[in-house]
């Protein structure tokens, strides 16, 4: 899974940060996840803050491999990690939306799920995901199916 530079909506690659001498770039990471026997494309975006001088020395362009650029400067590779919670990560954050139904994703208890994607050095963090009501129902159905199969196999033995 590679991390690529993604241009901002206005086409810029590097923007000034709120902090003097620092800039931000947008990172994009796409992968495929096996969800219930189907491969589903997962896209993540994160803002990455770095020294302005380095941002320009890296010669970044839309779609370029960010980790390859970092490696060329002897820097560690990054990955985008997703953290989810039932409380917002910042004021005014909107809950996670199911792109197929445009509905808020909720837990089985009816709590909305919030997500926050950030870049970390590879291997230093792991995703922290909250199970949605749909995932919990799917897991229960799969467990029931496995129990039924185990029972059928036991009867045949």
Report the portion of residues in β strands. 25-35%
Number of structurally distinct domains = 2
Mean of pLDDT: 87
The amount of helix comes to 10-25%
Biggest β-sheet description: 4 strands, antiparallel
SS field, number of helical segments: 3
Could you tell me the radius of gyration in angstroms? 20 Å
SS-based class: alpha+beta
**pLDDT under 50 segments (min length 5)?**
137-157
Q: What sort of overall outline do the alpha carbons produce when their principal axes are compared? A: globular
- Written as H for each helix and E for each strand, in order along the chain, the element string is EEEEHHEEH
Structure description:
By secondary structure, the protein is α+β, with helices and mostly antiparallel strands. The chain folds into two domains: 75 residues, no CATH class; 81 residues, no CATH class. The protein starts with a strand and ends with a helix. Strands 1, 2, 3 and 4 form a four-stranded antiparallel beta sheet that branches. It has a two-stranded antiparallel ribbon with strand order 5-6. Helix content is 24%, strand content 32%. The C terminus is likely disordered. The radius of gyration is 20 Å and the shape is globular. It has three helices and six strands, in the order ββββααββα.
